Amino acid sequence: MGGHWNFRRLVVAAVAAALPLATVLPVSAADAVNQKQTIDSGANTLRTPMAQTFKAGLSGQIDRISLEQTFTTLTENVQLQGVSNGKPDGTVLGSSSFTGALGCCRLWKDFTFNPTVAVTAGTEYAIVVTPSTNLTWYDSYAFDAYPDGQMWLMVSGSWAYQVSYGRDFTFQEWLVSGSTNTNRAPLLTENSTSVTAAEGSTATMTGTYQDPDGDNVALSASGGTLTKTGTSTGTWTWSQAGADESPAQQVTITANDGHGGTTPVLFNVSFTPVPPTVTIVGAPSSGPEATSITLSAKATSPSAADQAVGFNYSWTLNKNNSATSSAPVTGPTFTFTPDDEGSFAVTLTAVDDGGNGASVTTTITGTNVDPKASLTYTYSGLVLLPLTPITFDGGFTDVGALDTHTATFNYGDGSPLDTAKYDAPGQGGGTDTYAFTAPGTYTVTYTVTDDDGGSASATVKVTVQTPAVALGAIATYISTMPSLDNGGKNGLMAKYRAAAASAARGDNNATCGQLGAALNDLATLTQSGALSKADSDALAAATWSVHRALGCTKVKVAWLNLSL
Description:
The chain is rod-shaped and about 175 Å long. It folds into five domains: 4-176, Jelly Rolls (Sandwich), CATH 2.60.120; 187-272, Immunoglobulin-like, CATH 2.60.40; 278-367, Immunoglobulin-like, CATH 2.60.40.10; 372-464, Immunoglobulin-like (Sandwich); 467-563. By secondary structure, the protein is of the alpha+beta class. It starts with a helix and ends with a helix.
């Protein structure tokens, strides 16, 4: 310090007796910085009174205040005052003045207090500066460099906070050595008293901490994971993953300054249940009626605990948006068979071990399956001539057990269709007797149609013979008869072949005569025992069929007897 500091010490010593409430200590006693703010990011020049509040870190005696300033010549008064509602309250605890000039710029200027001013750790005080002319001081600009206080300006007789002039001006508070050190517990805050998160996610809580003595602060949590920024002041973040739903549990965060000062904060954390996500696996968009469909259940949960235990599955089936569904079926798979075409809504519900459930529905279209048709025919005799009754046997099957059906016979000769209807259960058929009126080959079709529009057809070709063809067929049959010897076969075959040739020429009279001769031979062979009665009856019936088809009118008695 320069020589003028000795002069100031003499002055304050002279006025010490005038301050009986203060403790008088020698100014030469060793002192040390107790509180300070030395960040000088900004500078301002004013002549208005200003103040900086601070909180005493230690209990003891303040013997000086240092301020970083620039001025030429002025008179400056510095007071220590009490604080009320965060502002200087006008109660002067100590005062120091200076008149003169600084040698240069941006220097730390000491203001000595003698008698010293007693302060108590944790109590707020104010440094009040009143300059006689413009004074340039230095401050932290927009940074809150000193959280335990702030800068004030006198505006119209009242203290006002003007952030544009800085948050805190630079100062150093010096405490006489030997002052008592009262440790203060750290400050700890949380942003909320409770936190709720969904199971399977992470719950978080944040807050701040600060040690008023500048001690390094250790943070601990009764559960979960805790991180922090800074050492003596900063923020903290707590997190915990929720494996399952749970009621509210209390978590304690504790700040410890390492000197016996601890501060706890409490908050509650709870995890809410989340319904599982449900999926039906293996569902086709459609399936044929009467064919079974098997579906599988799948559910996932964000909760690891729920996933490990598994889920209870149940299935219901609803057809064509009916008012009621089937009784639930439990298990991880479900099999059903569409009994008809239509819409089949399958609903899967999955419930976790906590009773939380969710459902999903898929719709499968049952498609119609066409019926299958069959057709056969029979007639009596060796030949098939016009007007010969033919029995047609049409049948069908259908896997659609609920289908009804309509069946028709189309004989291919322009005659009207024969129609029949059949109700469930998906199979049926019937016979129909029909006789064609003219020779020819006819395609007979049996068609069955179900109530869903599916159809199937079966066809047979029926050849109605001319007399010539029929007679040739009779001759061929004779060649295969085991009951007749070759001599008898040859004679009889010759007559039928001759008749066939006459019929082919259109000579019906000759044909009729030849048929009469053939019938006489049949009678002779039968009476002699050369031809079995069964073969004789078959040949006679076939011969009479041709006889009628030709319109032969001359009938011998032997012929009539043979046909009986």
